[in-house]
Amino acid sequence: MSQVIEGNLLLSDQQIAIVVARWNDLITSRLLAGAIDTFKRHGLPEENITVVHVPGSFEIPLAAKTLAAQDKYAGVCCLGAVIQGETSHHEYINQPMASSLMQIGLQFNKPVTFGVLTCGNMDQAIDRAGGKAGNKGQEAALALIEMINVLGQL
Ligand code: DLZ
After folding, report:
1. From the CA of 139, how far away is ligand 1's center (Å)?
2. Which residue puts its alpha carbon closest to atom 20 of ligand 1?
3. So where are the chain's domains?
4. What gap in Å lies between CA 137 and CA 145, rounded to an integer?
5. CB count in 10 Å sphere of residue 30
6. In 10 A of CB 89, how many CB atoms?
């Protein structure tokens, strides 16, 4: 019979970090609330959650890397909202940020999850920050919980 490894969705005494961008705070504050609520509902005491605010999504990888380097944290949940505006700013941020966050996880052998919205407009962001398309902060938190538990078994 095959051996199946899968993570449960419970945390207890781990410490986790959330990095959240202030840019588009209307959206990111909702992502943050969704993530914190999810961690608590899955067993993590609120005092085990460290929230680090950074100016914008461009700054997320550096904070995430600094946190991931610390043994204290079992994982890092990254939250932000890059919304296409009148400039091409999003083109320069989205892809490198996603790759950087993936690289940080690989470098430190630690889950780093991607709760950064990359939307065409504000309505799409609202839909994904607790609106009709769910809350991507919750999803990023759940993914972190699952990966912490999977990695704990490997
Ligand atoms: C400058 C900028 C712009 C135009 N748009 C966004 C955005 O949609 N989402 C976001 O998180 N941050 C944005 N920023 C800020 C940059 O991420 C960064 O904080 C600044 O360029 C300073 O380095």
Report:
1. 23
2. 56
3. 37-51+69-77+93-148
4. 12
5. 22
6. 16
3-state secondary structure of 72: coil
Q: What are phi and psi of 46, to 5 degrees?
A: -60, -30
Ligand 1, atom 19: closest residue by C-alpha: 56
> What is the atom index within ligand 1 of the atom nearest the CA of 84?
8
Residue listed under structure tokens 């941020």: 93
Residue position matching structure tokens 């085990």: 48
Mean pLDDT across the stretch 53-72?
A: 98
- Superfamily of domain 37-51+69-77+93-148 in CATH is Lumazine/riboflavin synthase (3.40.50.960)
Give the residue, by CA position, lying nearest to ligand 1 atom 13: 56
Whole-structure pTM value:
0.97
Q: How far is the CA of 96 from the centre of ligand 1 (A)?
A: 13
DSSP for residue 58: G
User: 3-state class of 111 per DSSP?
Assistant: coil
Q: What is the dihedral of CA 24, 25, 29, 32, to 10 degrees?
A: 60
Structure confidence by residue, pLDDT tens digits, 3-40: 999 999 999 999 999 999 999 999 999 999 999 999 99
